[in-house]
Amino acid sequence: MLATSLYNSIETESGDSIWWALLRIGIIVGFILAVVPGIIWWERRLLSWFQDRIGPNRVGPFGFLQPIADGIKLFLKEEVIPDKVDRLIYMIAPAIALFPAFVILATTPWGPNKLLTPIADVDIGILWILAISSLGVYGVVLGGWASNNKYSLLGGIRSAAQLVSYELAMGVALYCVALPSGSLRLTEMVQRQFEPLYGQEWLQSWFILTPFGLVAGVIFFICMVAETNRAPFDLPEAESELIAGFHTEYSSMKFAVFFMGEYATMLAFSAIFAVLFFGGWSPLPLNLEYLAGLAANNGMGWLASALTFLLNPWLAPFWFLGKATLFLTFFIWIRATLPRLRYDQLMALGWKYLLPIAALNFVVVAIWMMYGWPAMFGAFGLLILIYATYVATVRIPKAKKFGPSVTLIDMPANTDTTIEVTRS
Amino acid sequence: MTVETVAFVILSLLAVISAVGVIAFKSPVRSAICLAGNFFILGVLYFMMNYDLIGISQILVYTGLIMMLFLFVILLLNLSAPQMLQEKSYIKWWGAVAVAGALGIVVFSQVIMPLEWAVNPTSNPELGTTKSVGTALFSNYVYGFEICSILLLVGIVGSILLAKRRG
After folding, report:
1. Cβ A84–B36 below 8 Å, yes or no?
2. Which residues lie below 8 Å from residue A161, measured CB to CB, with a gap of 6+?
3. A123/B129 touch (CB, cutoff 8 Å), yes or no
4. What pLDDT, in 10s, does the model give residues A9-19?
5. Out of 1.20.120.80, 1.20.120.1200, 3.40.50.920, 3.90.470.20, which CATH number does the structure's domain B1-79+90-124 have?
6. Interface confidence (ipTM) of the complex
7. What are the backbone dihedrals phi and psi of residue B19, each rounded to the nearest 5 degrees, phi first?
8. Which residues of A touch B3 (CB under 8 A)?
């Protein structure tokens, strides 16, 4: 059995040799480079369906080769470098934008064994994600500044303010799940999610299924959309205001690298979301091992073997990547649905809502860690009650007092003219 | 010649080059980029020594902080891309060389010479983990830790107060 011997050799010490390290690096880099055109195709197809269009469907089956054709086109296009740019920074900015996605994906565990934890299972997993994702802003700001263009600079500075604001809420949301895991290591956080939920042996406690995890997950998702500069948070490249924002002056392959960086970062954050809130590589929030044992005891051997088959470690990457694809679809869905935020709305959302909610959630998690589930539900209910009282006593009277700034006046019906409606 | 040694040599060369770049470039933005790169490589060097938490703090705090420095450069100095800052006074230049040389002699004689050319760039793997640092912070050094947190809180409140007063 080749698969078994391969598995064994990875799990032993030889898995630490430099050749294995190079193999893992090759896997992760090759995978990202191969999958980014697929994501672009998926986005274009989905967006066109959302907008009642057909979308790219001519190049290859279902238009699948369209991004590759676009890539070749971008390679061969004339490269226009404006005269007064800071050439060195202008050149390295796209590369910096591409870098964080690779480095984050290098630490995400795809499956339960070493080969599927692509490069490093670092002790500081969550801090690593936060630190590296904060480096992504360099590419955007440097590209915006080096272009020597007002619109680009505005886009870059907006991006910096946006990322700094949303990083805080993202960090606090991540601590909310790090606290119950008792570890910052991503593999251990996934293992923690295999434990029974609410004391039910057949369920797995994916963090998204717990109350605090749901709040943290929603905050993390909003923040990750903001961190990747995607709609509705795409102010750095707001086409209606800033032409194309930070990449206005980029053409040809440099623009393509920025583009690739955006999609690779989306993939990286989707993978992180799957790992931290959706149980990583486990297929369902059910304890399949336990259920298989139950089925075998009740004489349903076929069900038991089917459930055990789902737990095969070689299938783990499929579950993991399937979840990541689902979240990528959410990204695209949100882009097709929501309009762009105004800048002040963006800042208010980040600082006035997400950060306080995340911090309160952190307190709730701490209460649960100390006093157990009933106290946590009590604290959760108390917080909702306090917020409801606040809304009822402060917000609603205030809103009534000032009222909406525009009032609609009933216009008297115009009786002088009548509109003739003729029917043929 | 292990893999670690090769990686160490490459990384330290990059660190030295980026450190020289900080003072060699005439554009303040390029200098800031070099500083960020230098801090990042220092963080990677900490990773090689198994000081994971210190390395990531280096990247999270310092490399992230350079972004702020960078924005201040853009917003306060109001430089567009082709403009450069250049020191015109040669007396200052030679003074800087003298001070840097003196500092170099002190560092070399007091810090680098006693090391007797360390050969192994790694260290005890248990020393720099999150767990050991956390345990130390919340047991032996808990007073210092709490005092630092109060200091930071005062800083945050003070900055909000100052910002509010202006408006």
Report:
1. no
2. A347
3. yes
4. 555 555 566 77
5. 1.20.120.1200
6. 0.77
7. -65, -40
8. 18
